[in-house]
MFS transporter (Streptomyces albidoflavus), 458 residues
Amino acid sequence: MSQAGTADAGESSSGATEGGRAGTHGGGEGQGGGTGGRFRAVVGAYAVSGYGNYLNLIALSLFSFQVTGSAFGVGALMALRLFAGFLAGLGSAALAARTTRLRIMVGADISQGVAMTVLALCADRTPVWLLGCAVVVTGAGNVCFTVALRSAVPAMVGPEARTRANGLLVTGRSIATVLGFASAAPVIAFGGYGAAFALNAASFAVCAVALLALRPRTDAGDQEPEEPGREEGAGRPGRRRPWRGAAGLPGLLLGMILLRGVDALASSSHNVALPVVAHAAEPSAPALFMTRFWVAWAVGTIAAHLVLKRAGKGKAWGERAFAWGTLAMSVCFVAAFTGLPAAGLVAVAACAGFADGWTEIVYTSRLQAAPDRQRSRLFGMSATAETAGFAVGTVLAAAALEALPALSVVGVFHGTAVLAALFLLAFAVTTARSPSRTHGSEGDTHGTRPGTGTPPGA
């Protein structure tokens, strides 16, 4: 999960120009704009592109099987997409140091839209190499867009409103997930793969046009001086150390990113195992089983946003809240594979969604508390960890399911996440009791310099 190095003069020079970049987004909300109409419009645009993405997940998987003619081909293309996202995560901080986050998001939308348009036009005669190119573009583009958006939220709404803003983004994504999955079958049935790809391309176009019209402020000047010697390589412009991205980051923050990667590995198990269980539990209607599960999950994520919105006023949630949420989420996902009746499954899925939404909001808000020039680096590291964890987990879970029941596989994978969450909790407690800490409880400060006091919560 090492991120491309930003611990050098290249990032310092980037920080020196951030104020100028922010000036190019004068139509944005400003540092204290809050989650008003402009940001909600950005959330709407994000949800539209998210709908296209989730529709495309199903369409592209089925289309890959049609083009390659084998499960191995589908797996190879999925691995290629994940590898492209992994590389994009490594390079996202370096890219953000050279241009604005708004340009990154618009560029990612345009490139993905072009790729989907080409597939839509060539749906009847798509060669494998062309499909592979489209997979690479969408894999890298999705990660670049996500890293840029998450790291830009504090500049869009102001630091105090970031938790509510992240809740809105999670809500929009949850709704997009349900609608995308639910509409995939009828869209493909009535219009074919070409229609699905065209709809996905249109969703990217809508998002890009909305961002260009709204021009939200995505970059903010960070005037905090660097601690002497904190970032090796300062003063040597142009020299980047791609595997030194963790230099100068507090241990708790790195622990959260590591836990996020382990959580992604664990989550791959239930994503792989759920279709297997759906066919076994309801062989006549497996799609209904999965729809019921994911709709309940989405309702839970929305509930998490509403609870945090009410309970989080004036309160900063930190590492412990994230660890407890990850632990609860893993327990709920394991419970979902214990053969519960339909009502019990819906309840457990909703609880898993609540914990999932809770951890997403808390985690994202915590990383956004870092200085502006450090955020792209952190979210790039996070994207790399999540992509790597999910990719490795998918391969291992698929292999394990050939020999073991779904409950055993999901239990082992999510048990690993539970152990990692307990380790982070223990580390957080030990760190809080350390005499070197100036604040004994999490969330006592909203300072942004890493390594000084308790890291701000989310």
About this structure: The chain has a mean pLDDT of 78. The radius of gyration is 21 Å.
